[in-house]
Amino acid sequence: MAVPIIQVLSKQNYEDQHIVSLATALPLSRLAPSSLRISTKILSLTTNNLSYARLGHLLGWWDVHPLPSSIPSKYSDPTAYGRLSCWGYGTVLESTLTGPSASKISVGTHVYGYLPIGTLPVDMQVEVNPAVPGQFFEISEARSKIMPIYNRYLFYPPTTTAAADKESLGLDALCQVLFETAYLMNRFVFAWIENELAQPGKDLGPPSTVTWKFEDAKIREDTVVLLFAASGKTGLSFGYELKHGRPAESTPRMVIAVGSESSKGFTQGTGLFDKVLTYDADSDDLAKELGLEANSKVVVCDFGSRGVAAGRWVTKLKQSYEDVLWVGVGGEVVPDSPEKVTEKFMAGMTSSMIQVNASGMRTQAMVALGEKEYFEDFLKHWTGFKMAGGFKGLRLVWGEGMEAVGKGWEKLCKGEVGPDEGLVFDLRDQTESGKL
Questions:
Q1: pLDDT at residue number 293
Q2: pLDDT, position 430
Q3: Distance separating alpha carbons of residues 191 and 370, to the nearest angstrom
């Protein structure tokens, strides 16, 4: 094994990045019982990763993969520096599992989930639930306070066809968990079956003062849905689900994307939206721009709009319309200090905006459908989306090795990644085969 390399970030400023070699990391320590040693192989970087950095001190994301003991002393202060994670695929290098689990997850097994950014393998203490095939859970005490969605992993035998398709793996790494957020919103937050209704912000910080009712969830024939920052992967996924994932009697009258001038062409080209507007369109007659009627229901979903655009539109709409809902899915990506981020986060939790939480939504959805049944249905949706060609106009931009990851992070921080680009990275060394 080559000398491992990891990404290290300043916790005060995530733009302060260091790609660090761990000269003393080898040989690796003995693997503990009931554990897997996994090496990240394919990963993605999106603005979601920047959100992990911004909110990591509040939601525990800095704690998932702590600084290793082999870190050089200049980066060894855990109050100043930390590691973040990514969504992607890894490979099992070593296992101490026993019993039936040992035969299901052998060396070479492919793993999808929340993995560290770097080539240093991660050790996970795991548990397999035989009632939910193809999955395991990270159960170590160190990760017990992390939301459940980050401790659940999917695994695939080395011989599976899907695991050998690099483009398919890249799309999984880039979009699968973001698509799942949109799937959860579409089916369980904006539910058309009452006993499947999920509370959007369950398990996210302090209990919300707003209760989500089935009447809130209903998408009527006069409903207009506005998606702010719709060119992002989660916004596009929700647009796709509203168009393709609902019964005909519960589809909105219009789905309108609102975003920057620079993303307008790409967003229009996806064909997912009835209309695409820019953030400043509220300077005109909004009722006319949005095609609203006197009794229209308006749903505003903010996936991370710039400035206060979504809130400004909501304020203006509420002056003329009684039924206006404001749903927060992501925040604006700006390099605020941890103190400023905390202030904004708490303000959002006490505002009229309904904030969603993918982990809490998934937990409720599994209760409604059954754990095994939930994943069967979601993965069927995800596979269907990929077979249909994914998002029109989106291309995967591949990089190889940790140097490329570092450059990709810099581009992400500078806002230089186009809406039509998906950053994915291959960390396999030259001695590995073309398969994962």
A1: 85
A2: 45
A3: 16
Q: Is 171 helix (H, G, I), strand (E, B) or coil?
A: helix
**Does pTM surpass 0.85?**
yes
Q: Kind and range of the H or E element at 408?
A: helix 401-413
- The number of angstroms, rounded, from the C-alpha of 142 to the middle of its chain's C-alpha atoms is 22
- 348 pLDDT band, cuts 50/70/90, is low
Residue 26 has pLDDT above 90, yes or no: yes
Query: Between helices 338-349 and 47-59, what is the axis angle to 10°?
Result: 90
Q: Give backbone dihedrals phi and psi of 190, rounded to 5 degrees, phi first.
A: -95, 55
Structure tokens at 68: 């290793």
DSSP code for 281: G
Residue type, 159: T
66 and 85 Cβ atoms separated by less than 8 Å: no
357 within 8 A of 200, measured Cβ to Cβ: yes
- Burial pattern 92-124, b for ≥16 Cβ within 10 A else e, equals bbebbbeeebeebbeeebbbbbbbbbbbbbbbb
Helix (H, G, I), strand (E, B) or coil at 161: coil
pLDDT digits (tens, 9 = 90+) for 107-141: 999 999 999 999 999 999 999 988 899 999 999 99
User: CA angle, 271 as apex, 265 and 277 as ends, to 5°?
Assistant: 50
Least Cα distance to 91 among 153, 33, 138 occurs for 153
Q: Give first-to-last CA distance, the chain, whole Å.
A: 16
- The string of pLDDT tens digits covering residues 165-191 is 889 999 999 999 999 999 999 999 999
pLDDT of residue 159: 72
Question: Where in 184-274 does DSSP place strands (E)?
Answer: 223-228, 254-259
Domains of the chain: 5-164+391-426 (3.90.180.10), 178-362 (3.40.50.720)
Q: Which two tokens stand for residue 30?
A: 């003995």
- CB-CB contact of 290 with 314 (8 Å): no
Cα–Cα distances in angstroms (integers) from residue 354 to residues 184, 191, 328, in the given order:
15, 15, 6
Q: Is the peptide bond before 27 cis (omega within 30 degrees of 0)?
A: yes
Judge whether residue 363 has pLDDT over 60: yes
DSSP category for residue 7: E
**3-class SS string, 76-143:** CCCCCEECCEEEEEEEEEEECCCCHHHHHCCCCCEEEEEEECECCCEEEEEEECCCCCCEEEECCHHH
For all residues of the chain together, what is the average pLDDT? 90
The CA–CA distances, whole Å, from 245 to 98, 221, 236, 275, 426 equal: 41, 16, 13, 19, 32
Nearest CA to 128 out of 148, 150, 153, 162 is that of 153
